[in-house]
Design goal:
Largest sheet: 8 strands, antiparallel
Radius of gyration: 18 Å
Number of helices: 1
Distance between the termini: 44 Å
Order of helices and strands: EEEEEEEEEEEEEEEEEEHEEE
Oligomer: single chain
Number of strands: 21
Shape: globular
Structural class: mainly beta
């Protein structure tokens, strides 16, 4: 297997991170002086053709197996395809270091794009500073409308997933992919078992982490869904790119448009989805 080249560094006084051209995959980010905010598995694969377990994979143009339920590769082709680095700006006095990546239908292996035979242009902008901002703009460059699913599959690093609470989803309807049924959230989200939920929510959420004494805020625009995922014990053991006990140190809080909230884009039109991460210290959480 061909190993991936080292990721690019995006650095400025307020913060820094790393990102690969492969999948336009953000691998790390932290404000200056803070602990890492993104999580990457110790067993993550590092080869062309393989998805990377951790950081921020881009799921596009479908999520999981897609709405038909049998599409491959899982989560679409964007995360296992090389993106073009359009520009990169990293200045000593800048508030954020920025990189912009481009992917078109012509960049996709014909064997992978069969389930999505539509002309498109995707532009992904990453800004690393005191906050991490990621924006994905998809333009329909063809002559007929199409629909797609998308997610910024963000893996957050936490001190103990059993102790975190996720605010901002109280009252939201969600589809529980484990139980295969619709539910409604009551109170804060906590992790007490395998968790895989697609929330119908456009709101900002906050991950309160008492073990690390901090709160991670996940704000977003152009997104109808928030996905919360933690594999818990048995599923962790079944994944070859995930160490058995690593479920305790991570949680996914994903900005998404999936399932019944897939994006419809007319010919010549665009859609932008943005996720913004920030961190605040809170010694009272400990």
């Amino acid at each position: 297997m061909t190993r991936l080249p080292s990721p690019l560094t995006l650095s400025c006084p307020p913060g820094s991170g790393t990102v690969r051209t492969y999948g336009a995959h953000v691998m790390s980010w932290a404000p200056t002086g803070a602990d890492p905010v993104l999580w990457v598995s110790s067993q993550a694969k590092d080869s062309v053709g393989e998805a990377i377990r951790g950081g921020v994979p881009i799921c596009f143009p479908w999520f999981g197996p897609g709405r038909p339920g049998d599409l491959k590769p899982a989560h679409g082709f964007a995360r296992i395809t090389e993106w073009e680095l359009a520009d990169r700006i990293s200045e000593d006095d800048a508030a954020a270091a920025t990189a912009r990546f481009i992917l078109t239908h012509e960049d996709i292996d014909p064997q992978l794009r069969g389930a999505f035979p539509h002309p498109f242009r995707a532009v992904y902008t990453v800004e690393c500073g005191a906050e991490l901002t990621m924006s994905l703009t998809v333009t329909n460059t063809g002559s007929t409308a199409f629909e797609f699913e998308e997610a910024l599959h963000t893996y957050l690093s936490v001190g103990d997933s059993r102790r975190i609470s996720i605010d901002g989803l109280d009252g939201a309807r969600y589809f529980d992919k484990v139980a295969q049924q619709e539910e409604q959230q009551s109170g804060a989200v906590t992790i007490t078992d395998e968790t895989d939920r697609v929330y119908h929510s456009q709101d900002t959420v906050r991950v309160k982490d008492p073990a690390m004494g901090r709160t991670i805020t996940v704000a977003k625009e152009g997104s109808a869904n928030t996905v919360v995922w933690n594999p818990w014990t048995e599923k962790s053991k079944a994944m070859d790119d995930f160490a058995d006990a690593e479920w305790q140190s991570m949680v996914c809080v994903e900005t998404a448009n999936v399932l019944g909230d897939a994006v419809h884009v007319d010919a010549g039109k665009s859609h932008t989805m943005t996720q913004r991460l920030s961190v605040s210290r809170d010694s009272l959480l400990r």
